[in-house]
Design brief:
With 268 residues, the protein is α+β, with helices and mostly antiparallel strands. It has helices spanning 3-8, 17-23, 56-69, 141-146, 148-158, 183-192, 213-223, 245-251, and strands at 27-31, 77-78, 88-91, 104-107, 113-118, 122-128, 133-139, 167-170, 180-181, 200-202, 209-211, 227-230, 259-265. 27% of the residues lie in helices and 22% in strands.
Length: 268
């Protein structure tokens, strides 16, 4: 990695209109794309996945760039070992780089940048700017079904957030038109709640369906009593801006990068 490459790119995240409107000066957030980093090849360029086979030096530099956008050192970038669970970790000012197995984080500590990684799964950022509590959740189909979003809201409330002050945004994730599933998948959801049928539409393949994970996730957020929006950006179909696990699988590529979504309470 040359010095020129280190300096050439600047990551520019996508922001949520809803979170921006309610953040005032208390919260900063961003859904980062795959652009603005130093990785190359199939990881080009802002790959932040420590679990990928990318050059670790490049990954660390990419994560440093994300932290820098928040005005923080990379050591203040809080992530977890994501395992498709409903589990939430509360992070305080003593954060020292731990990565417990969980799929969501919450904090009331200024300067800690809560992050989740994704490459088709749904990154959700939460904020109660008035009471200065934020959260971030990784919601694939397993986490969404198990209640990771609802658990994140409850963990924020335990830190002093108020349900009617919490806003959330679902960032770039795989869209309905890109997510075909088999009959066993559909049955698993319908056995939980027959009402989930509204999130499936027949595909061109007999017995299969197209699954609208973003719609399900957004609906669950709203039913939990908070304001929520979906950016409506499909990671699978937008190769230029996003990594996609499913697209990589269909293309027979050996590995894939991960993009990052992050939120922090600003330091007073």
């Amino acid at each position: 990695m040359t010095e020129d490459a280190m300096q050439h790119h600047v990551p520019t995240p996508i922001e949520s209109p809803l979170l921006t409107a309610h953040a005032a000066q208390a919260v900063r957030h961003g859904f980062f794309t795959r652009l603005g980093g130093v990785s190359s090849g199939i990881y080009d360029s802002l790959n932040v996945g420590l679990g990928s086979h990318d050059d670790r030096t490049a990954v660390v530099e990419n994560r440093r760039r994300v932290a820098s956008w928040f005005g923080q050192p990379v050591e203040r970038l809080a992530t977890v070992n994501q395992v498709h669970s409903p589990n939430v970790v509360t992070v305080d000012a003593a954060y020292a780089g731990e990565r417990p197995s969980a799929d969501a984080l919450v904090t009331a500590a200024p300067g800690i940048v809560l992050c989740v990684l994704a490459a088709d799964c749904g990154p959700i950022l939460f904020a109660d700017a008035k009471n200065r509590v934020v959260g971030a959740a990784h919601a694939g189909w397993k986490g969404a079904l198990a209640g990771v979003a609802e658990n994140t809201i409850e963990a924020m409330i335990a830190l002093g957030a108020k349900r009617d002050e919490i806003c959330a945004c679902l960032g770039p994730s795989i869209g309905r038109d890109s997510y075909e599933v088999g009959p066993e998948f559909v049955e698993r959801f319908l056995s939980e709640d027959a009402g989930f049928a509204e999130f499936f539409t027949p595909s061109n393949k007999a017995g299969h369906a197209m699954f609208d994970l973003p719609a399900l996730t957004t609906r669950r957020l709203q039913r939990a009593g908070i304001r929520a929006e979906n950016l409506g950006i499909d990671t699978y179909s937008d190769r230029q801006r996003f990594f996609s696990y499913r697209r990589t699988t269909h293309a027979g590529e050996p590995d894939y990068g991960r993009q990052i979504s992050a939120i922090a309470i600003t330091e007073e």
